[in-house]
């Protein structure tokens, strides 16, 4: 019987980029792909605090077109292009409160961060995949893209819904060229950012962190599994979709939500 290490080498010889790969879900994905044998590049706006990184790091603000071009050039020159692109950056930057709380600037910031950054990075790195007629692109979206909460994340939800539609359209265009495009939509996930959000809300409400989380979950209909996802659980799905085991999968959006979305 093969050892676990040998079983996890199905990405050997592949080069992957994980945006936002220094913490949370992105870090878990980068580590998982590396365990599977891939050479992993990570990017974020600022260099992480760790002095010894497990992956090759390139600083880039993907909301800035020039920095996206510079990142793509560095990857193409040093690594000869990519086999796997994980568009993971994103987050809520706009306030809650519904439509009247959102200015044009809020909408533009949310679209830049959660939609246009992925679009411009795909555009910059796709030519080498097309030339090889091979590649996998995975967009990390959000359950908010299919279940928006108007008082909490309206602009974010709209930007992620746009990412979902773009991902589907791109998958249809690129499938005949040997490139698979998929979407993964996590729900509440136990990341440092989520913990900060819960602790801040708990301090205001006077409840414990667990009580605060359950209260937040109840407002959106509850999580049937009763807990948040762990980053490694999202990473396991992303790894599978990037691997040869998923070679016939493209165009789909996979929810990692503990059952929160009440649709078939």
TrEMBL record:
Keywords: Oxidoreductase. One of its GO terms (molecular function) is oxidoreductase activity, acting on the CH-OH group of donors, NAD or NADP as acceptor. The keyword Oxidoreductase applies. InterPro entries: NAD(P)-bd_dom_sf (IPR036291), Sc_DH/Rdtase_CS (IPR020904), SDR_fam (IPR002347). Gene3D superfamilies: NAD(P)-binding Rossmann-like Domain. The keyword DNA-binding does not apply. Coiled coil: none annotated. It holds the Pfam family adh_short_C2. NCBIfam families: PRK06523.1. Belongs to the short-chain dehydrogenases/reductases (SDR) family. PANTHER family: 3-OXOACYL-[ACYL-CARRIER-PROTEIN] REDUCTASE (PTHR42760:SF133), SHORT-CHAIN DEHYDROGENASES/REDUCTASES FAMILY MEMBER (PTHR42760). This is SDR family oxidoreductase. It comes from Hymenobacter setariae. The lineage of its organism: Bacteria, Pseudomonadati, Bacteroidota, Cytophagia, Cytophagales.
